Amino acid sequence: MTNARGDDRYDETNVLRRLNAMFDFSSYFTAELGAAFLTLAALEVVLGIDNIIFLSISASKLPPAQQARGRTIGLAGAMITRIGLLLSLAALARLTSTWVTILGEDLSGRDFILLLGGLFLIGKSTLEIREQLRGGPHTEAAIGRKHAGFWSTIVQIMILDIVFSLDSVITAVGMTKNVPVMIAAIVVAVIVMMFFSGYVARFVDENPTVRTLALSFLVLIGMSLVAESLDFHVPKGYLYFAMTFSTIVELINLKMHKQAASTAK
Known about the structure:
Layout: H1 4-22, H2 31-47, H3 49-59, H4 64-87, H5 89-95, E1 98-102, E2 105-108, H6 109-133, H7 140-148, H8 150-175, H9 179-206, H10 208-229, H11 236-264
Antiparallel strand pairs: 1-2
Helix pairs in contact: 2-8, 2-9, 3-8, 3-9, 3-10, 4-8, 4-9, 6-8, 6-10, 9-10, 10-11
């Protein structure tokens, strides 16, 4: 004869074991996963520098009242696209495999994405520099177009983020197979970028020469993406060194101009 009380205790024990297994996070607090999390978060932040530059310039085309909201929504959407890339690991594997061979050169889906993204960056940045040289639009019609282009700006930011983050996501998949750790690193990196994006945007807007320099950086990044798609690897360290050196020189120039202006007064 089956003991009903004993069956109830057995079921209760099974439920408790399952609950303990569900909420047992001890496996996530290991030294190995901690190191992977910190490395991935730092990688996402460093590789997000070009994203912040593009985000700041794109959001500056919006009316002042919408710029902060545009940056926040753009980065939130970018975070969703990055997490979506992570959750489609099988699709990422297909992107790195050869799709077509042209003139003896193997081209993958990743190569096509980098090529199109690089060409878009070069074209858009060149047009922005040309517009800045012409003085920029100040008519009411142009301001109206900025209002109408809010969501198109957000879509641009999200699409270009796929190009910017593609390599870092593929690298993250190669570093660890723990998806929650990768997602946590992306969320932390995006929060950091949200915090600094406003400062970067204001600094770029207040200094036209810095804006031109930032657009030149985007042209440089676009050219490196095109080269990468054609299997001409350009080390990121070289790009970041050139960008850092140029920024330091520009900051020195700005400081000198401010000192000269204060002396003249």
